[in-house]
Amino acid sequence: MNIKWNAQGYTDNFKFVHQYGEDVLNLLDVKKGMRILDLGCGNGELTKRIADMGADVIGIDASKEMLEIARVKYPELTFIQENATSFTLDEPVDAVFSNAVFHWIDQQDALLDCVSNALKPNAYLVCEFGGYGNTQTIHHALGESFEKRGLEYNMNFFFPTIGEYTPLLERHLLKPVYASLFDRKTALVGEEGMMNWINMFVAKPFQNMEHAMAEEIKKEAVEKLRPILYEDGVWYADYVRIRLKAQKVEKIR
């Protein structure tokens, strides 16, 4: 995962991430006693929901800071610090669940190899993450402000179409059984909602930049976005999500 999280800021201001993720849980078809991996579990909110549904759940995340919050809130659950592109399990699981994680991963083949190896035969991957066009308006405004100053804006995200992602799944013996790409306009918290969103999720392009220059670019981009994404006193992010369910099989075709 190519980001270092402000775990407390994420927990305080971006509750919508796990709240929207609860809808994805419907695809899991949880039965009591199932063993489920929550990959990229963050602060553990959805891990707890899966446990409440009757599953034996393990949470994995690369962020020490996120896991510290998860362990304090839910000490009865199991949380492990591992990387999504290199983790292994002692025994395979009945399902891998992941919400708002895959678009942060640079090495998709390594990620899906780990997921496939973690699943029992005929078990399922259920996930949702940023899809093609996700937050395009925000990144365009930031890109313009970078370009105006002779700087290159590099987006550190992977936002695929269904057609792009299906072959990746199949290469790792994960047969897609459900896929949807959809717009989800998402309200942000407070008058500083857009600035907080940029600070939380778009840190990498500002690395090694002088603080004054970074703040100038961010403020300029926010003002460009105001006529587009600020409505009736509320900031919105132009989210597009891809939601998938894929089954572990012995071979494809």
How would you describe what is shown here?
The chain has one domain: 3-Layer(aba) Sandwich (Rossmann fold), CATH 3.40.50. It is built from nine helices and eight strands. It has helices at residues 7-13, 16-24, 45-52, 64-73, 108-118, 136-148, 162-171, 193-201, 211-229; strands spanning 35-39, 56-61, 78-81, 93-99, 119-130, 174-187, 230-231, 234-248. Strands 1, 2, 3, 4, 5, 6, 7 and 8 form an eight-stranded mixed beta sheet that branches. Strand 1, helix 3 and strand 2 form a beta-alpha-beta unit. Helix 6 packs across helix 9 (211-229). The radius of gyration is 19 Å and the shape is globular. The protein starts with 6 loop residues before the first helix and ends in a 5-residue tail after the last strand.
Key descriptive features of the protein:
single chain; 253 residues; alpha/beta; Rossmann fold; 8-stranded mixed beta sheet; 9 helices; SAM-dependent_MTases_sf; Methyltransf_11
Which class best fits the helix and strand makeup? alpha/beta
Radius of gyration: 19 Å
CATH second-level architecture: 3-Layer(aba) Sandwich
CATH superfamily: Vaccinia Virus protein VP39
- What form results from the Cα inertia axes? globular
Largest sheet: 8 strands, mixed
- What helical percentage do the residues reach? 25-40%
* β-strand amount: 25-35%
Low-confidence stretches: 9-18
Total domains, how many?
Answer: 1
